[in-house]
Design brief:
- The chain has eight helices and nine strands.
- A seven-stranded mixed sheet has the order 5-4-3-6-8-7-9, sandwiched between helices. A two-stranded antiparallel sheet has the order 1-2.
- Strand 3, helix 1 and strand 4 form a beta-alpha-beta unit.
- The termini are far apart.
């Protein structure tokens, strides 16, 4: 039946037994958007604009790292005209997803109650960001972008999708399908970031596994097609070859499985059903 849908106001369907219900969060601390950008001069201003238009988002923490185009210049101009935008510049590339950790730690230090994670390489309309923010206000700790249904019926979903599907099965959450923290946009409560640790966000499958194993409320809340606009083109080439990205993400999933085994034992918590080993 797939993961339960979420209309941004109330849950549709029921989750696993024993999980707490959807109740309004008493935590009214601000929600900030966290954005990492490397050579995104074409899109960075649109990303900032839509993040700030999203209801419930009170500011943006933008980490510009290793950019050699005008991304940092555009970001500084935006911050000069809007105090809700905070910009940190790093001269060298931080590495894939490391900007998430940097922005998250920065936002927590500034009193964030929740974090909305958005990439700078394409613009997601504010209306598609809003469900993730609203979910935090209804007790969700990890609000995921649901790509499972987008890929239903594909003859081959590839090794990355297979790895995430397997990881969710190992975690006892097959209802999540292939969804996890690899795909943006997604949102995390302050409790979620403090529980998994900001550093873990640099390895999204690891952060996902730690969140599930810690008993946090992890839900698919909305679907944003990030597959189609994220395809490479002549105007928008990949920073890394596809093979390199697959290797990186598969390695991230291995780290997540290692954390699962470290916490739950060599069988990951699955019983041996009386097997007598020689």
């Amino acid at each position: 039946s797939g993961p339960p849908a979420y209309d941004g106001l109330r849950p549709v369907g029921s989750g696993p037994a024993g999980r707490r219900g959807w109740t309004a969060s008493p935590d009214r601390k601000p929600v900030f958007a966290c954005v990492s950008a490397l050579n995104e001069e074409r899109t960075v201003l649109g990303v900032l604009r839509e993040a700030l238009r999203c209801p419930g988002v009170e500011g943006v923490f933008l980490v510009v790292n290793g950019s050699t185009d005008r991304t940092a210049e555009f970001a500084r101009r935006a911050a000069a005209s809007d105090p809700r935008i905070k910009v940190r510049e790093e001269p060298e590339p931080l590495g894939h997803d490391v900007g998430r950790s940097v922005a998250a730690e920065w936002a927590l230090a500034e009193g964030a109650g929740g974090l909305l994670f958005v990439d700078a390489d394409f613009v997601v309309p504010a209306g598609d960001l809003a469900p993730f923010v609203r979910a935090l206000g209804h007790g969700v700790d990890v609000a995921l972008n649901g790509l499972t249904r987008l890929l239903e019926g594909w003859p081959s979903r590839g090794p990355v999708a297979s790895a995430q599907t397997a990881l969710n099965a190992f975690l006892g959450r097959p209802d999540l399908g292939l969804d996890g923290l690899v795909a943006v946009p997604h949102a995390l409560s302050r409790r979620a970031v403090e529980t998994v640790g900001p550093a873990a966000l640099s390895v999204p499958p690891l952060a996902h596994a730690l969140a599930v194993m810690s008993g946090l409320e992890v839900r698919v809340v909305h679907t944003v097609d990030v597959i189609t606009p994220n395809r490479p083109s002549e105007d928008r080439p990949r920073a890394r070859r596809r093979e390199e990205m697959v290797e990186l993400i598969l390695g991230d999933h291995i780290e997540a499985v290692a954390a699962l085994i470290a916490r739950r034992g060599p069988r990951g918590g699955f019983p041996g059903h009386g097997r007598r080993r020689p």
